[in-house]
Design goal:
Blueprint lengths: L1 H25 L13 H6 L4 H7 L3 H11 L5 H11 L12
């Protein structure tokens, strides 16, 4: 009987410690930012980062601009200003007029 109690106590403490760890680690993530789990340098220059996303998402007005505006960064103007600063010559895809 005593052995079962010790095992239950260990399991309870393990579960409590796991819950505390999950809550603590989740405080550092931003659920509204899909890039928050990737370091900024990796996101900007990595093989599956910004360039990859741009080349595979030719509709930034659907995915990128809305989120960037919610973050207070701006939409197309934000992208263009970053391209200008880096000296990148890029034609940003335009939303088709309907």
């Amino acid at each position: 009987m005593e052995r079962k109690r010790v095992i239950r106590t260990l399991i309870s403490f393990s579960l409590a410690a796991t819950l505390i760890a999950v809550l603590y680690l989740s405080q550092n993530s931003d659920p509204s930012n899909p890039h928050s789990s990737v370091p900024r340098e990796t996101w900007i220059h990595g093989p599956k980062g910004h360039g990859y996303a741009v080349m595979n998402n030719q509709q930034p007005w659907k995915q990128c601009y809305e989120c960037h505006e919610k973050q207070g960064l701006g939409g197309e103007a934000y992208c263009q200003s970053c391209h200008d600063q880096s000296g990148t010559e890029v034609t940003i895809p335009q939303k088709p007029s309907q």
